[in-house]
Amino acid sequence: MKQRRKAREPIPGAYDLVIVGAGQAGPPLATALAKRGWRVAVAERKQLGGSCINFGCTPTKAVIASARVAHLARRGREFGIRIPSVEPDLSAVLERARGIVIQSRAGLREALANQKTVTVIEGHARLEGREGRAFRLRVGAKPVLATQVVLDTGTRSRIPPVRGLEKVDFMTAENWLNRSRQPEHLVVLGGGYTGLEMAQFYRRMGSRVTVVDQAGQIAGREDPDVAEALRTLLEAEEITFRLEVEVESVEPEGSGVRLSLKTRTGRRDSLPASDVFVAAGRKPNTDDLGLDTIGLEPAKDGTIEVTKRLATRVRGVWAAGDIRGGPMFTHTAWDDSRVLLSQLAGDRSRTTDRIVPYAIYTDPQLGRVGMTEEEVRKAGRKVRVGRFELRENGKAQEIGETEGFIKVIADARSGQILGAAVLAAEGAELVHLFVDVMNARGRSGVIRDAIHIHPTLAEAVQSAVSALE
């Protein structure tokens, strides 16, 4: 699968590169290549910006911010502030989020329009084989030739095979933003990151919320102590969890629905709800790209196998973003554009050998990077684990954000940081103290011996590292 980059050889009548999908990898790559004189076409069948701008990061973080305002208002008395009543307006909250989406989308379109050698082609793109040295595609009704192709088509919600679900007007990551009616009782199918964020959002808006998952813990990628602490925090807000439970069927009942459940021990139960939100994972959009016409076939999970340079096994065809497997985050997709730029018009030094942090935007947030304690111990490495409770931090006490803890894992001999979990207010920000040191291959002493401003939450990171000793 190793590909040797040669000097670019233009093909008459063909774009130098066609990018299929305008998610977080495509537009920055198109812009960077255009500045180097490449003729690039970006094919998009729906909206520029992919899942992040249109229904993911941008609107979810906007509504989560609104929900936090409501939550803080309810806590006013803790801070000596009397707020007679708190009345969340779901329609207004969603309208604010939609406004931010429209603004972000327009900014992206303008940025691409400002590049003279970038063409945005609207329509579904499909490969149709080869034409000499070029790849032949059809975007809507328009035939297009490309010297090289980047596939950046993203993912969609995976819909589990639950009997009767297709008869219910359920919510997903793709359509929730257009649902202005307040759910009375929302059942979330899935205890992963999307499910947890949306569960807390709707609960703070005033809905009853139940999270149902077949797994034994929420946030299955995390260490059990982290997942359990997060669950306890969400339960304190009266979010109900039904774990180790399979949803056998869903059927309409009155103005709502009724779910038939089966526990791992075989006990059956039913759960009435007004609405269902399906958050059962993501499915790659690779099933209607015409991959077979160029001898490319996706894996069983729908992803496309690539090298660490994002090259597929077909020379001249690359894959970026969620469809290339591995971490499915906006920031990894964006970094994929830098990897591809390095391969297509650079020194080929940049690859997907990288440290990837991520976050769950519950409140408090969970910022994560590197290996979990469980992963490190399974690998047989000798480690030290440092832990610090936020309630012991001065700034956390002062701002009333004492829930959570910081956990850091370091190699017992070298002191090299192997991973960290920051369950805290602004945990998604604080985890970058670990991210930067890990990227510099630094040891825990770098953080321990630094001077941090007092009072700050960053001091809690230093305290967690000091606990390694």
Strand residues, percent? 25-35%
CATH homologous superfamily classification of the largest domain: FAD/NAD(P)-binding domain
**Helical/strand content category:** alpha/beta
Q: Estimate nothing, just give the exact number of structural domains.
A: 3
Return the CATH class of the largest domain: Alpha Beta
CATH topology term of the largest domain: FAD/NAD(P)-binding domain
User: How can the largest sheet be summarized?
Assistant: 7 strands, mixed
Overall 3D shape: globular
The CATH architecture of the largest domain: 3-Layer(bba) Sandwich
**Backbone CA Rg:** 24 Å
* Uncertain spans: 1-5
Report a brief summary of the structure.
With 469 residues, this protein is α/β, with parallel strands linked by helices. The protein has helices spanning 26-34, 50-54, 57-74, 90-113, 193-205, 224-235, 330-345, 373-378, 394-399, 427-430, 432-439, 444-448, 458-466; strands at 15-20, 40-44, 118-122, 125-131, 134-139, 142-151, 155-157, 185-189, 208-213, 240-243, 245-253, 256-263, 268-273, 275-278, 282-284, 317-319, 358-360, 365-370, 383-389, 405-411, 417-424.
